[in-house]
Amino acid sequence: MRRIITVGREFGSGGREIGRRIAEELQIAYYDQEIITEIAKRTALSEAYIRQIEEKRPVVSFPIHIGHSFYLSPDPTFHPDLSIYTKQHDLLHELARKSDCVIVGRCADFILRDQKPIRIFFYADMPSKIKRCIDRRPVDENLSEAQMKKRIMEIDRSRAQYYSFFTEQKWGAKENFDLLANTSGTDIKKMSESLCSYIRAYY
Amino acid sequence: MRRIITVGREFGSGGREIGRRIAEELQIAYYDQEIITEIAKRTALSEAYIRQIEEKRPVVSFPIHIGHSFYLSPDPTFHPDLSIYTKQHDLLHELARKSDCVIVGRCADFILRDQKPIRIFFYADMPSKIKRCIDRRPVDENLSEAQMKKRIMEIDRSRAQYYSFFTEQKWGAKENFDLLANTSGTDIKKMSESLCSYIRAYY
User: According to its UniProt record, what is one Pfam family this protein matches (chains A, B) (predicted)?
Assistant: First the structure.
């Protein structure tokens, strides 16, 4: 049975880091930015452009994040384009066929549902998410906590819109996941180890 | 660090069985009906009476479950009594001090929050819960699926009322738990093993 772990996460919950750690620990493929790169190669669209579309619901403009920090996207003229989603859909299926993997974001839990992935969602309370953003921010970022909170909420709102636009499901709702893990105040490394143990016992 | 696992669960999700299996596997104490018995001994109230109060929100009357099946409680004259909750509160603290343990229900996640338990909530989709109830029903129970569904919803509604009455929190909401596990279509024994692995790695 192919081990496919999909990761949904609130911004600042550490879910992406846990996903990467799980992939490393289990020695399986990890997809995140890689997917974007792959799509970009195939479509000859610029990676930055794809990244914008991918994390956004068409027609709305909002900040997206890159890496562990915030990033205010420029205000591009935006043309809703379902073909990006379709390409991503096909690519995810191809990747999941190829090998065991962890896939972060991209509605992978929904797109790959027939492959019976373990669908994990990470979340945390706001103070924990702000703390994580502060701990990991680049030296040139100096948002106040109030500004950070606003951005976190904007990003999560956009993820929720993106997710529900393509899946017609509620983002982060427990019925769409197998496991939801609260990272508030937890040690991310330790939680990754616990989840690896869970996954190993599961398969 | 004392290992305390609290289990919340939707009726029919198998959460209680998983709780028991975890306790057995980890060889730690398991509390469920035992708590009721203990309280009953101390207060000299009848166990059946306590059981009724415990699972109900004061002033409403509804069916409760015993074991793995449904049970229609008689319609007692009901006097809301916070002293039962207070006794239960003290008892849970005493039990948690005494040894590592799994505690199912009884708002233990809330009552013992300062002891930093792993707070797990189990849930499942309705078809899985109905299937589980059918698979485990006693020979003399012959509810239709529609009747079962109605009972499951009634019992869960009463659990939600009981929980929110005493905790002022929403029952089953992810912010009140560390881990939420979907048991739909899963092998309960296997899930118990996976969670044991998780818990072992956690502590």
Answer: Cytidylate_kin2
Q: pLDDT of B106-156, one tens digit each?
A: 899 999 999 999 999 999 999 999 999 999 888 888 899 999 999 999 999
Which chain A residues have a beta carbon less than 8 Å from that of B180?
174, 177, 179-180
Would an 8 Å CB–CB cutoff place A123 in contact with chain B? Answer: yes
Compare CB distances from A198 to B174, B178, B194 and report the shortest one's residue.
B194
B2's enclosing H/E stretch is none
| Nearest alpha-carbon partner for A9 in A189, A181, A184 | A181
- Phi/psi of residue A195, nearest 5 degrees: -70, -35
**Prediction ipTM score:** 0.81
Where are the domains positioned within chain B?
Answer: 4-202
Instruction: Please tell me what DSSP assigns to residue B119.
Output: E
Indicate the CATH number of A4-202 among 3.40.50.300, 3.30.70.100, 3.40.228.10, 1.20.1270.360.
Answer: 3.40.50.300
- The answer to whether the CB atoms of A181 and B182 lie below 8 A apart is no
Cβ-Cβ contacts under 8 Å, A197 against chain B: 197-198, 200-201
Residue A201 and residue B180: Cβ atoms within 8 Å?
no
CA B186 to chain centre: 19
